[in-house]
Amino acid sequence: MDEERQDQPEEELSAQSQPAELDDRNWYVVHCYSGYENKVRHNLEQRIETMGMKDLIFDVVVPTEEEIEVKEGKRRTVERRVFPGYILVNMIMTEESWYVVRNTPGVTSFVGMGNDPVPLRPEEVSSIIKRMEAEAPRIKVTFRQGERVRIIDGPFNDFRGTVDEIDMERAKVRVMVNFFGRETPVELDFLQVEKA
After folding, report:
1. DSSP class of residue 135?
2. Rounded distance, CA 139 to CA 77, Å?
3. For residue range 24-44, what is the model confidence (pLDDT) as tens digits?
4. Which of 13, 59, 136, 160 measures 20 to 30 Å from 185, CA to CA?
C-alpha cells in the first residue's frame, strides 16, 4: 500500500487527505420566481431531505434585512428581501446536486455563464451575511431631495418643508422650513418626516 502512495503526485495526496466538503463547498445564487423565495427554499429543503442530499447541499438562505417603514404616522418593522427573485445555496457542485436544485419547483436557473453556475466570492458572501445580521434595521426613505415633506414629530410637528439633504449614514434629513417668513434648515430623524 505504501508503494502505491509513493507513485502518486504530491498534489493528489494532499487533495485526498482533505475532506471534500472543505475543498468544494461554495455559495451559489439561484434564480427563482419573485415573491416565491420562501416557498422555493421550503421545496428545496424538502427535496434535500427526501433525496438524501445533506452531504452535498448544506444550507438554503433567502437574504433579508429588517426595515422600518412609516405609514400613516405609524412605525412598523418589516422584513424585506435583499435580492427579490434570488436565493443562496451552500453546496458542493456535482451533477447530482445541480440536478436536485435545478429541478426544484420554482427554481428557474443558477446564476452563471451559460450552463456553468458561478460560485460567489467569499467577500461577496460575507457582505451579504453582514447586511442580514445588521443590528439596526434600515429605515425606508419614501422622500427624495427637493420633495415636499411634512414633519410629524418634534417641535416642528405639522410644519411642511422641502428636503434639502439626506444623510443615509446617520439616518438624518435636513428640511428647509419656512419659519417667520424665512427658510430655516431643520435637521430631523428619518422617522420624523413623511412625504407631503
Report:
1. S
2. 9
3. 899 999 999 989 999 999 999
4. 136
Answer whether 92's CB lies under 8 Å from 84's CB: no
Q: How many CB atoms lie within 10 A of CB 77?
A: 9
Cell of 31: 434564480
What burial class does residue 159 get, using C-beta atoms within 10 Å of its C-beta: 0-12 exposed, 13-18 middle, 19+ buried? middle
**Sign of torsion over alpha carbons 91, 97, 98, 104:** negative
> Are the C-beta atoms of residues 137 and 67 closer than 8 Å to each other?
yes
Please, is 54 exposed, middle or buried when counting C-beta atoms within 10 Å of its C-beta (0-12, 13-18, 19+)?
A: exposed
Cβ atoms 174, 192 nearer than 8 A: no
How do residues 137-146 score in pLDDT, each as one tens digit? 777 788 889 9
How does strand 138-139 pair with strand 64-71? parallel
pTM: 0.64
CB 15 within 8 A of CB 39: no
Cα separation of 31 and 176, whole Å? 44
**In 57-192, alpha helices (H):** 95-102, 122-132
DSSP state of 100: H
* Residue 71 binned pLDDT confidence (cut-offs 50, 70, 90): low
